[in-house]
Queue: 4 jobs
Job 1
Amino acid sequence: MKSEDTPFVGGPLDGRVLPVLLGLTGHPPKTYRVPVPDANGGPPTVLVYQRVQASRSKRLGLHQGWKYEYDPEGKLGRGLKWPWSKTDAKADRPSDATPDPHADE
């Protein structure tokens, strides 16, 4: 598999350049999670970095690589923004469950 040296901005990995495996499309993953072990043996802390565009060329405005920015809130990802996405549709749709007729007894 191919990898690409990708810079990290912000957080504990600020200024580091790490090799990141590329996906089938030739891009690094949108979200990069780094588990950091706890010194006391507790559950590890997970640092979350989001992929953003590094820069554009001046003349043609072409994409020139990726970088990762620290996400202190640790969001899992941006998800789909489409109105028909499963997560949005379930929130707007009333429940399909039928009420229990014996619930009042």
Job 2
Amino acid sequence: MFKTLVATLALVGSVSAFAPQPMGARVTTAMFDTYGKYNEKLWDNDAKKDIYAVWDPSAPRSPENFNPFETFDGNSPDASGRYPGEPFYKDPMRGDVSFQQMMDERAEIEERLANPKAGDKPGCPGCRN
């Protein structure tokens, strides 16, 4: 008798999984991910300097808080701080550059490396590594 009751309950429970839901009880399963300030905008050196200016190495890394000049396996992050191969990576819109611009940026990089932000050290919460 007990086996019959258990079998009946299992059958009723499995059938209800395929029954249509009432019209007002829909649940969305869409995933919304956040993107950075320069998503779908020009991701050039000026944009990177803007993001770097507000970057806080002691705060957790997020699309709004990351070092845009930090590289990972030789790759630069997109406008949301994601690297190629990571989920939600979007190839950024890059501007044209000239040799002179690259030399100017190199001088800025050397200056930035010589004077890092307070708290910018390997393993800090705002860093990739």
Job 3
Amino acid sequence: MFDLSLRPLKDTVLSPLPPLLPQSLTPNSLTLLAFLSGLLSCLSATCRSPFSLPFWLLNRLLDCLDGAVARHRHSTSELGGFLDLLGDFVVYALVPISVAWGNGNGDEKENVRQWIAIACLEATFWINNFVLFYIAAVAEKWRTNTFLQNRNGDGGGDGSKSGSQELTSVMMKPALIEGFESGLFFTLMLAFPSYLRALSWVMCVGVTIGTAQRVSWFVGALARNEREKRTG
């Protein structure tokens, strides 16, 4: 929800750091360090270690810094983006499970309720990610088709006639739960593990609403595209 509005602030805060880092510290190495610190945070959470939160905050800092360094050095790459997302998805999936593991106690009923909340939360992650990546795949297909039409003289020179522009904005459309909000929920889980079940249900509802928003926008974009193809 706040990712786009917070992006300029994040870039401003991080801008002094990339010039200070040695060239040997590449964006991909920062991504690896972020991933390792995320895993250490999860491992610490399973052991109820107080280091889980510091390792998580280090993960968040490094995760922001790898992209800032790549942009500063003009070395952004598809591989870097892939590794960054892969690390995020693995750590995001493990944080709630790790906190639940470390938060278990002798109350069997309470443990079952906690794991049900975690299972539902993880399920919303899977569904939301499917929606995001399906939209991305269709958006790329539409962009490619528009490019070929423009080269063959079958479409407008700026590609504005196609639905690809609309779908691109849909793909980037803010939803209720995005990166900032996810990071905030995971921080609260690690800082206050006793509230894990309540936080999981709240986040589960938020992710569900965000997914519904994206599905609604996507269905509308598909309908507009179909109308354009019939009338175009």
Job 4
Amino acid sequence: MELCIKDRSFLVQHPSLLRILRNYKSPSGSVLHYSYYDYMDVFEKVLFFQNQNFDHSWFIMFGKDFKDITPSWFLQWWEKFGSIPLIFPDPLQDALQYFGSRCTSSKHRSQFPTIMVFSQRYKIHWISRWNYSINGNLLDREFFVKWWDSLKINKIISQMHEEYPLPVEKPIALRTRSQSSLDSVQISGKSSKELKELA
């Protein structure tokens, strides 16, 4: 499943406005309509669908052209199906920490976890799945995420360092013992007026 908001007009129109669902018709042949509320609802419910392998496991990625503002409702979706830092390989966990320390966020974006912003920006894929579980006397869902091994993390890390370069360390000038002794000899015995002139 590819996560991507394709229709930008949703961002400026009222959410209840009906749109035509292209390339699909009802069994009777009539045109199907949907609203932005339907779109939000489908984002979650599609992942509850049992696939042909009788499994609830999904490969999730952000679309390459996704650059729009993330809607606030997406945070609730992320809490169930989104990635977590624990599944990242160590170099990518370090990159995530570095990104979090360097990336500045708008007020809107600051409500989202750093891993979500990081995953969106650098198109990090993961596998999300869920199973049924018994919780007391209730049938419940347990959500899991798994790392996708084929992702090229070196490319992601170098792309991040292009955007947020590592700070350049300035070499520390080493002072020899003779220089320190010479400085102390030159300063000792000077009046405060002479020390001000030296400074």
